[in-house]
Amino acid sequence: MPKGVTSRRPRTRAALLAAALEAFAAYGFHAATIEQVCERAGFTRGAFYSNFASKEELFLALFDQHSERVLAGLAERIAALPAGEVTLRSLVAILAEIEPAERDWYLVTTEFTLHAIRDPQAAWVLAQHDARLRSTLAEGLTDYLARAGRRLTVPVEELARLLVAIREGGLAQSYVEPAELPPGQLERRFLEPLLTAVSAPDSAPDSAPDPRTDQRSSLEVH
User: Which residues does UniProt assign to the signal peptide (predicted)?
Assistant: First the structure.
């Protein structure tokens, strides 16, 4: 492949992803066409198919891009906290931040999730991407709580699922009734007592706990 084509490929892909998010949010995942995505990006169908095999693959690339951006933003804000401010309240304040642009992504991902519920193959593929997101989130939660001098008393993977469910369920209500429930309000009000209830003071806060040990202990107790 010519060097110029290789160097343009990341830019082409980025433009197609940005155009896809706009088209999917405006028309819906099913209604939006590949032609509309290409028109918004300023490329041909050939450029599209040299980067993506289908609209489903395009969405999953968007999913990974969004997940990486959100998780990287969380990690950056957490890393910037001074040692004395590594608390559950500080973590909640970070988790409760919802960018205005999140509404477009919510529209797109909700429609694809409904599609996946109806299509077992799409569900299987989406579940793999969800699992990678939760794994990274779970790792970050474990590290943060260790820095805060606490350890989980429940399996971290299950807590990650619950936090995702609270975020997605809360946003659904917020976008229907924004005046009654601003985005992030449920997290700000309830996450701190929740995290307090599912964690305990760590007897050795300077050493990060092994989440697998925490999970075994939790299962043995209950």
Answer: 1-25
